[in-house]
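Dear colleague,

Thank you for sharing your sequence with our group. We've completed the structure prediction you requested, and as agreed, I am returning the results in plain text so they can be pasted directly into your records. Please verify that the sequence below matches your submission; if there's any discrepancy, let me know and we will rerun it promptly.
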Amino acid sequence: MLAATVRVTRDLDTAEEAVQEAYVQALRTWGRDGVPTRPGAWLTTVARRTALNRLRRRQTLEAKLPLLVEPEDEGGVGTGAGEGAETIPDDRLRLIFTCCHPALAPEAQVALTLRLVCGVATPDIARAFLVADATMAARLTRAKKKIATARIPYAVPSTAELPARVDAVLTVVHLLYATGHTAPSGDDLVRDDLCERALGLASLLRQLLPLDREAAGLHALLLVHQARRATRTDAHGRLLRLEEQDRSAWDRSLIAEADRLVVAALRAGPPGRFTLQAAIASLHAQAPSYEATDWPQILTLYDELLRVWPSPVVALNRAVVVALVDGPEAALAEVEALERDGRLAAYRYLPATKADLLHRLGRPAEAAAAYRAALALTDNTTEQDFLTARLEATRPPS
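Please find the predicted structure tokens below.
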């Protein structure tokens, strides 16, 4: 609905307000007259009309405002469509490319798009960027203010402008899936709606950019995650670790499709971060068992990933593999170095990983303290239950 409305207005603030107004009108009208046959179309029509009325009123007050566009023809979609609109085959994808405007800082592009286009809550975006909620809220406000003051037009980019925005768009889709794959808050570990939306966008991106190896890598990565998604919890919704999951229930057709994409991307040239992550995920998925996983090769891929994408999160994930190749003592040294670094201070998986390593090293009191630290950082009930059970396991038998 937002995507359809912003195509009319080319002004995201106006479109967002109009969509909210449409929901308010729905609450008033539907309770009296009943829900219409096509509620989505009803909401979209009301949002567009509301947005156009607001634009016309603004035109009366301000003679020329660059953010405005000519109103659409009656019953039409709008005149914001240009070369880019014809190239990008999906309203949501068009809006993501539009919001990832290079005039904004890369992190602001991604955060703003996740909030406004994908509907991800500000606290969940803050967790994805490892910053406080207030910091992310201020960052989003600054980005919107910059758009307004600089009068950055919300125009669908042309084909020639797409390459400069691809990395931010891929990051948006990846973070959207990650937010659904492990929900930062709530009772359920997985948010299926976000995962399905991200997977669909990744598929569209691969069709739109058939020669882009990273678009293929991202699609492959999400396919592997999707293949294993149903086995990440048991029948009671409890979190299962990779070694506890039923590999016979993994979707082999998705894993095979992902493997074809990964192999093609690796053969085409030096891999980027999404292709390397997909290659790691693919190796996990193809191993006949957890014990038979090719951990040395996965560690080699992590080394390359850390070179291409020097992120502390990647370093932490690499440390988990180090534990399986060189033992928990070596991994603990790397985790403690990341702890001193401080950038992962709000990242729940750092103390959770440290706790697991300490538990394996026979240091239960320190492991319990680390599990408590991890518990304090997660708002997801399923993860809290998992960490509580692990914490209980550190207690000596009475």
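Summary note from our side: The chain has a mean pLDDT of 87.

Kind regards,
the structure core
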